[in-house]
Amino acid sequence: MANLTLVQAINLALAQEMEADDRVVLLGEDIGKNGGVFRVTEGLQQRFGEHRVVDSPLAESGIIGAAIGLAMAGMRPVPEIQFEGFLGPAYDQICNHAARYRTRSRGSVTIPLTIRVPVGGGIHAPELHSDSPEAIYAHTPGIKVVMPSSPYDAKGLLLAAIRDPDPVIFFEPKRVYRSFREEVPEDDYTIEIGKGKVVNEGSDLTVVTWGATVYQCLEALDKLPEDLSVELIDLRSIYPYDEDIILQSVEKTGRCVVVHEAPKTCGFGAEIAALIQERLFLHLKAPVQRVAGFDTVMPYYKLELDYLPDAPRIAESIQQCAGY
After folding, report:
1. What is the pLDDT of residue 301?
2. In Å, how far are 82, 124, 174, 246, 317 from 179, measured between CA atoms?
3. What pLDDT, on the 0 to 100 scale, is given for residue 1?
4. Which residues have a catalytic role annotated?
5. CA–CA distance from 156 to each of 10, 19, 148, 235 (Å)?
6. Torsion 98-192-185-249 (CA) sign
7. Pseudo-torsion of CA 18, 23, 28, 31, nearest 10°?
8. Cα–Cα–Cα angle for 239, 244, 245, nearest 5°?
């Protein structure tokens, strides 16, 4: 076991998969000599060479277009987009091409492509560097969307994503890149895409979240009355997502609060609320609550932390839902 940060766990996963499979290649802006803007790929170009860790031009559509071509030719490309806001120029390549080739080719062509993207706020970055667009891509058939919250999960999910025959957007919550360490096996292991986990067991109310907000939710649980038992679920995968783990928990508790950084309107929390309403209406003791970012552009530094769901706001919503 190694005691690693999330950044180190991702670096380890990339190195081990590149060692095991020479089809795995990395490409992106500054990922080689500089190791990427967050140094996630640090040391990999020196180890595997410039032909497998490629510093690309500043052109996101070109990065993803080239990666799609590599995938079609039998490679396993892992492009990096520096920040989630820079996915926009590559949207056409991702959603109109990578996502559709399996259907377009009637299954004869698959796109084993893993797009790594730092995501979310909390680091006081400038505009276009702090958004949470996971719902946009979860709404696109043909793409899988993953967002780990811990080093252990990051390694297992990234290895699963690289080995997947279809395109995966691998969102990395930058707020927890180096915020803590966790024991991560140095041996090979994968975590199934589409399977959530119970972080904290409870019986009175269910909280569903993913990414960095897992830790604000844990902090919120410490602020609650001791007699309020809350089950906390980390989805880990946004699409496909683990319906069963949500439904089993809410059937038990009868109450649910969904927490995410993205704006509330059309955020992925709405999908979860709809699932619960459709499948568990007669089990509900209270309306499903959502704690989310506001329906505005992510503000600049001074207001950023007021925008993001924090422990007091989450705890307040949990208590309101519990007392309904």
Report:
1. 82
2. 19, 15, 9, 27, 26
3. 82
4. 129
5. 9, 16, 9, 14
6. positive
7. 20
8. 90
- Sole residue written with tokens 């422990």: 311
Which residue in the block uniquely carries the two structure tokens 């699963």? 160
The pLDDT value recorded for residue 128 is 83
CB 115 within 8 A of CB 91: no
Question: What pLDDT does residue 126 have?
Answer: 82
- Cβ distance 87 to 94 under 8 Å? yes
Domains of the chain as residue ranges with CATH: 2-184 (3.40.50.970), 197-322 (3.40.50.920)
Strand partners, 43: none
Q: Which two tokens mark 69?
A: 């071509």
CA distances for 119 relative to 177, 188, 321, angstroms = 10, 26, 29
pTM of the predicted model over 0.90: yes
Question: Residue 15's pLDDT is what?
Answer: 98
Measured between alpha carbons, how far is residue 187 from residues 26, 33, 56, 155, 181 in Å? Answer: 22, 27, 31, 10, 18
Q: How are beta strands 205-209 and 256-263 bridged, if at all? A: parallel
Size (the chain), residues = 324
Tell me, what's the pLDDT at 125? Answer: 87
DSSP at 121: S
Residue 295 neighbours by CB distance under 10 Å: 10
Low-confidence ranges of the chain (pLDDT < 70): none
Residue 127 is predicted with a pLDDT of 84
